[in-house]
Amino acid sequence: MIKKIAVGMAVAAAMAAGSASAQWYGGANLGQSKTNYDSARVAADLAAVGRTGTGAVSNSDLGLKLFAGYTINDNVALEGGYFNVGRFATTNGTITAPTAATFNGKIEGQGVNMDVVGTLRGGPATGFSMIGRLGLAYFQTKATTSVSAGTLTGYGNATSNKFVPEIGLGLQYDFTKTIAGRREVQRYMKVGNSNTGSADVDLYSAGIVYKF
Predict the structure, then answer these.
(1) Which CA distances in Å does 151 have to 109, 135, 197, 212?
(2) Selection from 187, 179, 188, 182 nearest residue 170 by Cα
(3) pLDDT-above-70 percentage for the chain
């Protein structure tokens, strides 16, 4: 499904290329993903499948995104791309009932997005611009969990694919007319489900923009 949506984005981008007024750009960001999935949510998700237990969460990993867009005017652009937030949550803990066991797992995420990006320019003398984004992401959440005894049905071995809202803020600096640097934070909201684990995921990143 992600591949189909990515192809759709590429087709839409190719159609937009026919407009002489379209100003194209592309780039890549690298950074760190973080999530608010925590020990309380682990316990709640275990309870939802009839298990009593506790767990700890390591909730960050390396993240990246690749993007392309075109400007409608000086203040508005459409932007789409691919992102991967890595293993944004790693879990481990203990189940006390109905069968005693230990468990460990990982939750990974990736997807594609399409956003409206607004730009507030500081003027040619500064080179700085504030950017904000609002859009939709098709987010794939994949969870894998192993247990020391028995099976853990209904939690931690599942995949969720769904559209989620996405928001973001950032700062851009134009080094030249064609090259700019960006620092951004983006939030993918309520990814996953009760089987994979559900949470907001943030991506803090920095990267380079090339304007065609």
Answers:
(1) 24, 39, 17, 54
(2) 182
(3) 89
Q: What is the rounded CA–CA span in Å between residue 154 and residue 161?
A: 16
Neighbours of 75 (CB within 10 A): 12
Distance CA 154, CA 157 (A): 7
DSSP string, 97-143: ESS-EEEEEEEEEEEEEEEEEEEEE--TTT-EEEEEEEEEEEEEEEE
Q: Which burial class, exposed, middle or buried, applies to 88 when counting CB atoms under 10 A from its CB (0-12, 13-18, 19+)?
A: buried
pLDDT tens per residue, range 76-113: 999 999 999 999 999 999 999 888 999 999 999 999 99
Mean of pLDDT over the chain: 88
